[in-house]
User: Fold this.
Amino acid sequence: MQQSDTLSATFAALADPTRRAILARLATGEASVGELAEPFDITPPAVTKHLKVLEKAGLITRGRRAQWRPCRLEEAPLKTASCWIEEQRKVWESRLDRLEDYLSDMQKEKG
Assistant:
């Protein structure tokens, strides 16, 4: 998958507050589907759909240990998204700095 496709999948998965809450929970450690579903007032199939979106985006992996099927946070896609956001922040800060300089120069010429 290309980086832009990975970013699209990551941002699409992060667009939902339930999925963000699931990721926040997984940041504290592995959890079963039942444990992840606990705080939400949604059906088990709805939780499974959210997990499938997160898994497809590469944000989580699901394992199997006997009867326990833990979900685990995968940090790489989040790091990729964070790096992309940081690059965009630098670009826009630079552009805004140049705009500020330009407007300051214009004010000096008027004054």
